[in-house]
Amino acid sequence: xxxxxxxxxxxxxxxxxxxxxxxxxxxxxxxxxxxxxxxxxxxxxxxxxxxxxxxxxxxxxxxxxxxxxxxxxxxxxxxxxxxxxxxxxxxxxxxxxxxxxxxxxxxxxxxxxxxxxxxxxxxxxxxxxxxxxxxxxxxxxxxxxxxxxxxxxxxxxxxxxxxxxxxxxxxxxxxxxxxxxxxxxxxxxxxxxxxxxxxxxxxxxxxxxxxxxxxxxxxxxxxxxxxxxxxxxxxxxxxxxxxxxxxxxxxxxxxxxxxxxxxxxxxxxxxxxxxxxxxxxxxxxxxxxxxxxxxxxxxxxxxxxxxxxxxxxxxxxxxxxxxxxxxxxxxxxxxxxxxxxxxxxxxxxxxxxxxxxxxxxxxxxxxxxxxxxx
Length: 374
Known about the structure:
It is a single chain. With 374 residues, the protein is an alpha/beta fold. 39% of the residues lie in helices and 13% in strands. The protein has helices at residues 3-14, 32-35, 50-53, 61-66, 110-114, 121-140, 153-163, 201-211, 224-229, 243-252, 266-273, 307-318, 324-331, 336-353, 356-366; strands at 20-22, 39-41, 75-80, 94-99, 147-150, 168-169, 188-192, 214-218, 235-239, 256-258, 278-281, 299-302. The chain has a four-stranded parallel sheet with strand order 3-4-5-6. Strands 7-8-9 form a three-stranded parallel sheet, with helices on both faces. Helix 1 (3-14) crosses helix 14 (336-353), helix 8 (201-211) crosses helix 12 and helix 11 (266-273) crosses helix 13.
């Protein structure tokens, strides 16, 4: 249940009668809200070891998503960070893409995923063969959606640069009610993250190995073994934590460490909702939530992804005063209910302004009055 899944979960609440399509469904891995939806998986679901090794089937993702049959639907919302926008629909079907990012593995973070230190020789050679095709397919299918929604202004600029498409911005949902305002702190800093290369958890570990400060790391992923192997005793790994435990870890930390470049970054907002500041790399989505100004301070930004720059930011955070009440108040504009309201209004607005001939054809096919609202 990472950021993309939380967006889908909220959409399932907004449109509870929808059908959910996914490349792979690992039963029980997501929330009950998602699990109770009608779920249709692609042919990748039936391939060997797909539930655990689905990333190895990346070159097949385009074909898998193109084979979904969308002919029975009037409106399709794709939640896209890889290939979801590539679905094929009829001209009279309205397609809105909520884009977390253009496919990061083949664009801005290719080396982070497939560099010599991250991937074996066979994987690197395989991706070298397929990356040109994947990039071509990604750009070509950017014409499929009628409208793009970006999850941040950072991603909005990326959509324009790579796809040459305009987009609107609706920030992803943060369940601020889950987190409690805390005015006290324990003796540790905190990381909450998937263990993948671009998150740069290794950078934080190197910095804390030198400072000796206590660092708790919540999460897991492909980089788990490597990260543990380079950590000293002041760094503890807790695995993924349930929401009830997670909010307690947030509430007691000194600050959240956010060392990677993220598309938006829900985790920093969760920390702020707990009244905690964020130490973040000054690039990407963090620039839209981590603020250093005389009027509002939500954290500390470091300009270079170096151990020295991060250590300086940690020290600055230690001597800076933050208002827990101000931090929490700031996060309410990112609340889950705000996201749900804006998405509902956006879909209704675009449906009502959709080309009348296309909309009416869809409604006639459904056998419903032309005044029907979705």
